[in-house]
Amino acid sequence: NFDLNIEQLTSGTKHHFFGYIGQCQTIPWSASGRYILGLEIDTINRMPLPGEAATIILIDTQDDNKILRIGKTCAWNPQQGTMFYWNPLAPNTQFFFNDMDVKTGEVFVVVYDIEKNKRVHEYRYEVTPIGNGGVAADGSAWLGLNYGRLARLRLVTGYPGAVDWSQDEVAPENDGIFIVDIKTGKKRLLVSYRQIENRLKERDPDLEHNGLFINHTLWNRSGDQIYFFIRAGWNGNSSKRINIPCSIRADGTDLVLHDIHIGGHPEWAEGSLLIGRQGKNQVLYDVDEMKVVGKLGNPEIFPDPEGDISLSPDGQWFVNGHKQGDRNFYTVYRFSDGAFVRSEGIDKGAYSGDTRIDPAPQWNRTNDAILVPGIDKNKTRQMFLIRVIPGGDY
Fold first, then answer.
1. Which has the closest alpha carbon to 4: 306, 290, 303, 319?
2. How far is CA 362 from CA 1, 125, 150, 298, in A?
3. Residue 394 has what pLDDT?
4. How far apart are the C-alpha atoms of 389 and 279, rounded to whole Å?
5. Is pTM beyond 0.70 here?
6. Spatial separation of the C-alpha atoms in residues 104 and 117, rounded to whole Å
7. Could you give the CA distance from residue 308 to residue 250 in angstroms, rounded to a whole number?
8. Strand, coil or helix: what is 319?
9. Which of 97, 147, 199, 208 is in the most buried spot, having the most CB atoms within 10 Å?
10. Tens of pLDDT along 159-202?
11. Distance (Å, whole) CA 373 – CA 357
12. Which pLDDT score is estimated for 391?
């Protein structure tokens, strides 16, 4: 009693994309639903060169999806874009993105106002030039990461040319996850690599690695807890690979290294629950209880529970995007009755590695459309919409 309809949103000779998975209410739409954020680039078959700019665009859904080009950024990559977030304190007019000073390599965070047509604030920290890794849904803070360190230790998640102030240490005391108060700009180190390594060595006193890094700093829906991955050994050498999920309170307390791994792209549900994978199942994991407490559907509904996943803002709909051959498929699941529909396949091309096109679904604010990437007939990367079309009583 519902269906899915696919529409192509952008076209042309240039490539257009939003970026990251719609985890933790990463929503491309402005509060009114009129504008959709995106990037426009010239090539997708390699990582950006140091200083290479992408154009920031707004898609006007009330004017035949006209593309408005409003600025540039030099801090972006094909998988995550520039970590766009509409500002929860002004979600109809302001958004966050990352940028980089091409002369110094220092990454910083920008707030842009579309009514004033200008940058209204920049968060710059000379000693620790961090970029945004996630904005709390309540607009209280954003999480900061060293994108130079990421570029060195896992290129696909970093910014080429970004300065890495902690490159001489495998577990630095002055680097890790930072937390920045949005209103005041006050920054503090939430947890350091040294703290995490100390906890790792409690488990394995003989642990050696070539450098820790952090991926996927995920705020919960209430903005008081963060889930993330501590990793090492991703850059092709023989170093020991580390991939351990962690959680911490937003006040810096209760750092936990979890024994149960629920996949690389989990999503927060309500309260202390995460949605992820265990074996062949899409499961619910309680971060506080540190155990799997339920599951969604079955393997027939979700053939790849490790796929990119996103929960709708109202918590009533769930989408899993998985790869099959050269296409991405999306399964939309309704919690009220367990009904589901799988989309037609959307071409993802043959791109792989650092330039791969992940399924990366992102819900809109009214819980009835999902933004996804795909390849157009002319082989350009474009933005597509999957609309959820209701039918019958539910």
1. 319
2. 22, 30, 24, 22
3. 38
4. 32
5. yes
6. 26
7. 25
8. strand
9. 147
10. 999 999 999 999 999 999 999 999 999 999 999 999 999 999 99
11. 7
12. 77
Please report the DSSP string for 24-58 in residue order.
GG---B-TTS-EEEEEEES--SSPPPTT--EEEEE
Q: Strand 107-113's sheet: what is its strand order?
A: 85-86, 94-100, 107-113, 118-123
φ, ψ of residue 179 in degrees (nearest 5): -130, 130
Pair of tokens at residue 308: 């990119």
pLDDT less than 50: residues of the chain = 392-394
User: d(Cα 63, Cα 21) in Å, to the nearest integer?
Assistant: 26
CB neighbour list of residue 128: distance below 8 Å, 6 or more residues apart: 144, 146, 165, 174, 175, 178, 187
- Cβ neighbours of residue 392 closer than 8 Å, sequence gap 6 or more: 1, 2
CA angle 68, 137, 385 (to 5 degrees): 45
Please give the pLDDT value at position 393.
44
Q: Which two tokens stand for residue 167?
A: 């490159």
Whole-number pLDDT of residue 152: 95
Instruction: Give which of 134, 101, 112, 131 is closest to 57, Cα–Cα.
Output: 112
> SS3 for 155?
helix
Token duo for residue 342: 């799988």
For residue range 213-222, what is the model confidence (pLDDT) as tens digits? Answer: 999 999 999 9
Strand order in the sheet with 176-181: 131-135, 141-145, 176-181, 187-192
pLDDT of residue 21: 75
Residue pair 231/264 in contact (Cβ under 8 Å)? The answer is: no
**Distant-in-sequence, close-in-space partners of 286: CB < 8 Å, separation ≥ 6:** 272, 273, 274, 292, 293
What b/e readout covers 88-117, taking b as 16+ CB neighbours within 10 angstroms? bebbebbbbbbbbbeeebbbbbbbbebeee
Contact 217/132 with Cβ under 8 angstroms?
no
Domains in the chain: boundaries: 24-296
Q: Which CATH class is domain 24-296?
A: mainly beta
For residue 34, give both structure tokens: 């009129």
DSSP 81: B
Query: For the CA atoms of the chain, what is the radius of gyration?
Result: 20
